[in-house]
Amino acid sequence: MTINHAGTLGKEYFISYIKLIMNACGCSVDEAKEQTFKRLFNSQEENMGRETYKQFLNAYRELQE
User: Fold this and answer.
1) Residues near 32 by Cβ (< 8 Å), separated by ≥ 6?
2) Are 14 and 55 in contact (CB under 8 A)?
3) Three-state SS for 55?
4) How confident is the model at residue 2, as a pLDDT?
5) pLDDT band at residue 4 using 50, 70 and 90 as cut-offs
6) Which top-rank group of organisms is this from (predicted)?
7) Could you give the dihedral angle defined by the CA atoms of residues 20, 23, 26 and 29, in that order, rounded to the nearest 10 degrees?
8) CA-CA distances (angstroms) from residue 17 to 40, 47?
9) I need a labelling partner for 11 at 20 to 30 A (CA). Which of 26, 52, 57, 61 fits?
10) pLDDT digit string (tens) for 12-29?
11) Rounded to whole angstroms, how far apart are CA atoms 61 and 32?
12) For residue 8, what pLDDT band results from cuts at 50, 70 and 90?
C-alpha cells in the first residue's frame, strides 16, 4: 500500500492495512497492530503525526470489537 506523507491517514486506511497484515501473516489483531506500528511508525507515536496516530488507534479499537 502506498503512503501519502503529505496528509493524515484515516481510520479506514489502517483498518485495511491491519486486515492485510492479519491475512498475509495469519496473525491476531494484536500482532498485526504491533507489526503495523513498527512498519509505518518506526515504533514512534509521533513519526507520522499525532492525528494519524489517533486514527491508527481508532482503527485498532474497532478491529478489537
Assistant:
1) 18, 19, 21, 22, 25
2) yes
3) helix
4) 52
5) low
6) Bacteria
7) 50
8) 10, 17
9) 26
10) 999 999 999 999 999 999
11) 13
12) confident
Q: Which three cell numbers stand for residue 53?
A: 496516530
Tell me the whole-structure pTM to 2 decimals: 0.88
In 10 A of CB 26, how many CB atoms? 9
pLDDT confidence tier of residue 56, bands split at 50, 70 and 90: very high
Q: How many whole angstroms separate alpha carbon 56 and alpha carbon 52?
A: 6
**Residues 15, 59: Cα–Cα separation, whole Å:** 5
Spatial contact of 8 and 52, defined as CB atoms under 8 Å apart: yes
Please provide the size of the chain in residues. Answer: 65
CB neighbour list of residue 48: distance below 8 Å, 6 or more residues apart:
5, 9, 40, 41
